[in-house]
Design brief:
three-stranded parallel β-sheet; 2 helices; two-stranded antiparallel ribbon
């Protein structure tokens, strides 16, 4: 059996005033930090991340180099 993690990060940040998923915590964007936890988990085979449609390319770049397949799709 294959197990995939789905991480929803497609929000626009309107209420907060910024897209929280891209803010840094100790120098690492929150989204990267979150996805890395799943990428490091031995039972997770693949990861799907939703991101704002206008940030797909930037999110793919942000998540490059993970040790598991990670697909970025439009969410919101």
């Amino acid at each position: 059996m294959r197990i995939s993690a789905v991480i929803t990060a497609g929000g626009s940040g309107q209420r907060f005033g910024a897209k929280k998923q891209y803010l840094e915590l100790a120098g690492v964007p929150i989204l990267r930090r979150t996805v890395q936890v799943f990428a490091d988990h031995p039972q997770i085979d693949a990861i799907v991340v939703t991101a704002p449609a206008d940030d797909l390319a930037a999110t793919e770049t942000l998540l490059a180099g993970l040790n598991k397949p990670c697909q970025v799709v439009a969410g919101g």
